[in-house]
Design a protein that fits this description.
The structure holds two protein chains of two kinds. Chain A contains nine helices and 16 strands. The chains are: A alpha/beta, B alpha/beta.
Chain lengths: 318, 276
């Protein structure tokens, strides 16, 4: 046997959550993972962030829910989900089969919702960590209110934090004046990591029907179109908090992912990029290894925040 | 309807021929032998955009024989424009087959196929299979104008009856294809249709008048194409065998429908089970 040169280490951590590969699949974009299992080797992913679940079942918004736009996608799904009771009874057990990390996602309409659903979901062994979705733009603003109001963001985070020791990742909204200030209060309220960013509010109008394209009128913009917005948000948040950042917004390639990592993200999330090409997460992981090797770096950790002089650390405080 | 398919994989294919029967409609032949083996009539593929940064495009599988499948594209926007520029020898990535496809066993012995525009594409394989099994097949095919009626002769050569309709009367019946169906379609055992939503609603109404059931293949914008994103829903009768297993219905709600994913539970649904 000839000794092979060691491949660069691209593992990372978000709080207590260790990822062999620094890629999570974005909530709402990857189902529960099984939808993609015949297209992608799930073992090559860091993990899957499940579709957000709420206390009560939600039918979601009426059609149309999607509008492809230049370099992106507008969506207004409206948190369609079976509700936490049905979810626990019928869905969660099969997540144990996933060969990668499984992150549950919790959405709510009150502080009590966030606490209740987080407690129920985090108690299950199949769930490795919790994403707190305080920033869904597609539910009549009730949901996103939590991500846009520092007091509510703090309240939801603190309440969810009190119910579990598992890693708590709070997903921030870009639809605010100062994302860094929200990041600070969420960190102080006990978040282990921050997901930056959720979709950017937008809309599109059908000029022939003279009416909004989306059934919900407004939606959330994702894809390559929002990447520079997301990179800036990571840059700003990385200068404001010490907890690790999960960078997301239009990542399709390793080069895209590197922008977020160099700005201060410890891991990245791929959502809409899977709709362009389901092989995107594999290409991102391979490309990150190649980049580290080409730049003489042994570990991804060596380059987190490397382009950001104000980067505060991005390491878990635990 | 057939059981949900799980044989979808990523295919690295090569364009082997290209034809543009009329400006704006392109038929791309691609070498993808595994897809020929696994695809069921009425299934679709998602084509990865060659230059990235846009969501994949859902395209119905048209011909399927030997090592070759073909895809019928209508050039309607930047994504399809890019695909229409592909030439023989070019590579493209696609994933599938996806969706449920038509349930040919329940259509009986005298089947009406109803196509609007490039809704023709997913009806060729059903026509071939039904005719090979000894059923009678009649194609009702409508388009805006005669130039947009692509490959009607192909169906005639297979042995199907063909009735044509155009909005401008430049060929066949002047008006909607569903008017033809209602007028001529009294003997059919069932209907299978694909086309724009208004046409499919009209097919559903015509089926009711004719006293037969209709399988409709719905056209919609997909993002994932695999049932992950819930972006392509249609209201479906809760009692439908295709209704998602754990539908989002709150306790005490009396609503009789659930949201089904067109890309996953469909794209083919019984018209009398849709609540759209």
């Amino acid at each position: 046997m000839v000794a092979k040169a060691l491949s660069p280490d691209i593992s990372t951590t978000l709080g207590k959550l260790t990822l062999r590969v620094p890629t999570l699949m974005g909530s709402g974009c990857y189902g529960s993972g099984e939808e993609y299992a015949s297209l992608v080797d799930l073992a090559q992913l860091g993990g899957v962030v499940l579709k957000s679940v709420t206390r009560l079942p939600r039918l979601g918004n009426r059609a149309p829910r999607l509008v492809p736009v230049a370099s992106g996608l507008l969506n207004a799904i409206g948190l369609q989900n079976p509700g936490i009771e049905s979810y626990l009874a019928n869905d969660v057990a099969k997540f144990a089969e996933r060969p990668c990390a499984v992150v549950g996602s919790v959405a709510g309409f009150s502080i009590d919702d966030y606490a209740y659903v987080t407690e129920r979901l985090a108690a299950r062994d199949e769930i490795d960590a919790i994403e707190l979705n305080i920033s869904c733009p597609n539910v009549d603003h009730e949901g996103e209110t939590f991500g846009c109001d520092p007091q509510l963001a703090e309240g939801a985070t603190r309440a969810a934090r009190a119910t579990t020791d598992k890693t708590l990742i709070v997903k921030l909204s870009p639809n605010v004046t100062d994302i860094a200030s929200i990041a600070r209060v969420v960190e102080a309220a006990g978040a282990d990591a921050l997901a930056v960013i959720n979709t950017v509010r937008g809309m599109s109008i059908d000029v022939e029907r003279v009416a909004p394209m989306l059934g919900n009128v407004t939606g959330g913009l994702s894809g390559a179109a929002i990447r520079p917005i997301a990179v800036l948000a990571v840059w700003e948040v990385a200068r404001a908090v010490r907890i690790p950042i999960l960078g997301q917004g239009g990542i399709e390639t390793a080069r895209d992912a590197l922008e977020f990592i160099l700005a201060g993200a410890s891991a990245v999330s791929i959502g809409t990029g899977n709709f362009t090409d389901p092989r995107a997460p594999i290409a991102v992981a391979d490309g990150l290894r190649d980049y580290l090797a080409a730049h003489g770096k042994a570990s991804l950790r060596d380059i987190v925040g490397a382009a950001n002089p104000g980067f505060l650390g991005g390491r878990s405080q635990t | 309807m057939p059981a949900l398919d799980t044989s979808a994989t990523v295919h690295e294919a090569i364009v082997c021929d290209r034809r543009e029967p009329v400006p704006g409609i392109v038929i791309l032949g691609i070498l993808a032998s595994e897809l020929v083996r696994t695809a069921l009539p009425g299934q679709f593929v998602m084509v990865v955009p060659p230059s990235g940064e846009r969501v994949s495009t859902a395209v119905g599988i048209y011909e399927s024989q030997g090592d070759r499948v073909s895809l019928m594209l209508v050039v309607a926007g930047p994504r399809t424009r890019e695909l229409a520029l592909l030439a023989t020898g070019d590579r493209l990535a696609l994933f599938g087959p996806l969706g449920n496809g038509f349930d040919l066993h329940t259509l009986g012995r005298d089947v009406a196929l109803v196509a609007g525009g490039v809704g023709l594409a997913p009806l060729l394989l059903p026509a071939q299979r039904l005719l090979a099994a000894g059923a009678r097949v009649h194609l009702y095919y409508g388009a805006r104008t005669s130039a947009a009626l692509v490959d009607a002769e192909l169906f005639r050569e297979l042995g199907a009856g063909v009735s044509l309709a155009t909005d401008d009367g430049s060929r066949g019946h002047r008006g909607y294809v569903t008017e033809l169906l209602e007028r001529e379609g009294r003997a059919h055992s069932a209907i299978a249709a694909c086309g724009p939503s208004p046409m499919l609603r009209a097919v559903g109404n015509a089926a009711k008048k004719l006293g037969v059931r209709a399988q409709l293949s719905l056209e919609e914008t997909f993002a994932c194409g695999v049932g992950a994103c819930w972006g392509c829903i249609v209201p479906l009768d809760r009692a439908s065998a295709q209704a998602p297993k754990f539908p989002a219905v709150a306790p005490g709600e009396t609503r009789d429908y659930v949201h089904a994913r067109i890309c996953k539970e469909g794209p083919v649904f019984w018209s009398d089970e849709l609540r759209w």
